[in-house]
Specification:
It is built from ten helices and twelve strands. Strand 2, helix 3 and strand 3 form a beta-alpha-beta unit. Helix 8 packs across helix 10. The longest helix is centred in the C-terminal third of the chain and has 18 residues. The radius of gyration is 20 Å and the shape is globular. It starts with a helix and ends with a helix.
Length: 347
């Protein structure tokens, strides 16, 4: 089935700006190839402002600030928020490992500038055993200081671990650290109750980075289903089903790397699928890249049914018989297959 039959065409919905791939944590489950990239590369504030303007002109009305650890570039972070607000673009919650909280003065200066810029999206805070280089005290300090500037009900905590009990023990320890600051907090179900709002908690199984040999015991392996779900879900144990991960039903973000490369991907598969690169910000505009990508049958296949649909069209059916930690694992297997490259004429 092709895009003419499905009526679905690649339609991105937003832009994700990876301002830097530098990160003090470098977690085992991260897809960023820290052993190969130049962590000195970054997207400057001027470049980011230009890209937001191009994104808005191309019909993209939302943005994310990602990394690496995006708070390593606080001035750029604030300028992106300010420009996005000027353009009336929605800012989605940026991720952070809270390392910036090791310096309370710098943290509060950052929060103050963000508040002045109109930031209200909140943060996605990581709390899991992969953050071995980030003390939990930093997370507590981040939340405690944030309460003086923002409504914490817009915040979220993500626990990436197959062992939910281990994550809950970490959350209990986080509450003890907050209570020691006089900020009475407790975990209730999937919420962290605080005096400044309830923070939603999500428990996720990690995706195995394709460039690392990590044991199956650290991951939850999922089967592939050919049944189209009535309502796509991203649960811990759901099968990998046909789902338009590049839009219009999926997230459909353009992921802009510090090098300037632009990938038609929400970010989980960044750096390991060259077929998803649609251009570079220093060679052409986002609008030109999007127009060209809309003529790609591969992009339309991913928009219609994700890597499952791409495998069906390419005939790589053996890939659908294996198990994966996430749909991005399946995408890696399908798009890096020579049969897929020949079918869609990709690198």
């Amino acid at each position: 089935m092709n895009n003419k039959e499905t009526g679905i065409t690649y339609t991105p919905k937003g832009i994700a700006l990876a301002v830097t791939y530098a990160c003090p944590s470098m977690c085992d489950h991260c897809n960023i190839r820290f052993n190969e990239i130049d962590t000195a590369e970054e997207i400057t504030a001027d470049t980011a402002r230009r890209l937001l303007g191009e994104a808005k002109a191309a019909g993209l009305h939302a943005f994310q600030i990602v990394g690496g650890e995006p708070t390593l570039k606080p001035e750029t972070f604030v300028e992106i928020v300010r420009e996005g607000r000027r353009l009336s673009m929605k800012c989605h919650r940026p991720p952070t490992n809270c390392r910036i909280a090791r310096d309370e003065a710098a943290l509060r200066s950052f929060f103050s500038s963000l508040s002045d810029a109109g930031f209200s999206a909140g943060f996605r805070i990581s709390v899991d055993h992969f953050h071995r280089r980030i003390p939990l005290e930093y997370t507590a300090g981040f939340i405690f200081a944030a309460a003086d500037y923002f409504n914490l009900k817009r915040f979220a905590i993500g626990c990436c671990d197959i062992d939910e009990d281990r994550s809950r023990r970490m959350l209990d320890n986080l509450c003890r650290l907050l209570c020691a600051k006089g900020f009475e907090s407790r975990v209730g179900g999937n919420m962290l109750e605080t005096p400044a709002g309830r923070i939603k908690i999500g428990f996720w199984a990690p995706t195995r980075p394709t460039w690392k040999q990590l044991p199956d015991s650290e991951f939850l392996l999922k089967k592939v289903s050919l049944s189209v779900p009535d309502k796509p879900r991203w649960g811990r144990r759901d099968d990998i089903a046909p789902f338009g991960c590049l839009g219009p039903k999926g997230v459909g973000y353009l992921w802009v790397e510090p090098s300037g490369a632009v990938r038609a991907c929400c970010g989980n598969a960044c750096q390991f699928i060259d077929a998803l690169v649609i251009g570079n910000i220093y060679d052409e505009t986002l609008g030109e890249m999007i127009d060209r990508a809309r003529g790609s049958e591969l992009m339309d296949a991913l928009a219609a049914g994700g890597p499952v649909e791409a495998a069906l069209r390419a005939g790589t059916l053996d890939a659908l018989e294996k198990t994966y930690t996430h749909r991005c694992d399946l995408c890696h297997a399908v798009l890096n297959d020579s049969r897929t490259a020949a079918r869609f004429n990709t690198p």
